[in-house]
Amino acid sequence: MTLDLAVRRAQLYAFQAGVFLYPRHNWLDLLPEAEAISCALDIALQPLHVRSGTLTELQAEYRRLFGASGSLCYETEYGLPHEFRQSQELADLAGFYRAFGFRTGGIVRERPDHLAVELEFLYLLSLKEALAIQDGNQERVFICQEAQRNFLRDHLGRWIGCFAKALERAASGNAPSTLQGLYPAMAHWVEAFVEMEVKRLGVILENKSPCEVAPTPFPEDFSCQACPALEEV
């Protein structure tokens, strides 16, 4: 692993994390630079029919696909047997983050199993790996690589393919828009990047077919009555 490769991987993880949060800035302006990094890593982005768009259009497309809850973006919505297992997975994610000083919160608050959060954590690990390479600290390099290997095996690598396919289905079921196909293309791009990382690190995944994945069930006492969004209806 070279310093340049570690830095490029970190840059790509950081950009992709921003793509799957509600847009506060127009990340389409940065897409050509991200594509150049992707090409340098030998990862092809699917051809896009849309090369430009306003922030308003980008926000509208995000709402169109992900809705108010954005539940497609959460790992533990993909086929856990019950809500208790969901809590266990969230605790496992929190353990990964705590071990490397990664804290969620700040201006953008998301659950630890959100796609953007998992991508940002891998950005942090890749950046720490780059710093360790720069310092010639092989022990820290190994620790960072092992953490990436375990995280991809236990978390992101297991569900990113299901996410990409679910997003593609959701997009095809909606009315056409000016940015039609943008987010599914981004999802498959992330999927290709993760597949490259999995292969590079020698990770063995236990993948599920999308047809085998059912949404994680709600608790029996679940209710929407306390949701603040009801006040807007």
How would you characterize this protein structure?
By secondary structure, the chain is mostly helical. The chain has one domain: TorD-like. 57% of the residues lie in helices and 0% in strands. It has 7 helices and no strands. Helix 1 packs antiparallel against helix 5 and helix 6 runs antiparallel to helix 7. The relative contact order is 0.16. The C terminus is likely disordered.
Q: How is the secondary structure organized here?
A:
Blueprint: H1 3-19, H2 31-40, H3 55-66, H4 83-99, H5 115-135, H6 138-172, H7 182-201
Helix pairs in contact: 1-2, 1-5, 5-6, 6-7
Features:
233 residues, mainly alpha, TorD-like, 7 helices
Along the chain, the helix and strand elements come as: HHHHHHH
| Mean pLDDT across every amino acid position | 84
Q: Just name the CATH architecture.
A: Orthogonal Bundle
Find the CATH topology. TorD-like
Described by strand count, sense and barrel closure, the largest sheet is: none
Instruction: Quickly give the structural class.
Output: mainly alpha
How many helices? 7
Task: Tell me briefly what this model is.
With about 230 residues, the chain is mainly alpha-helical. Helix content is about 55%, strand content about 0%.
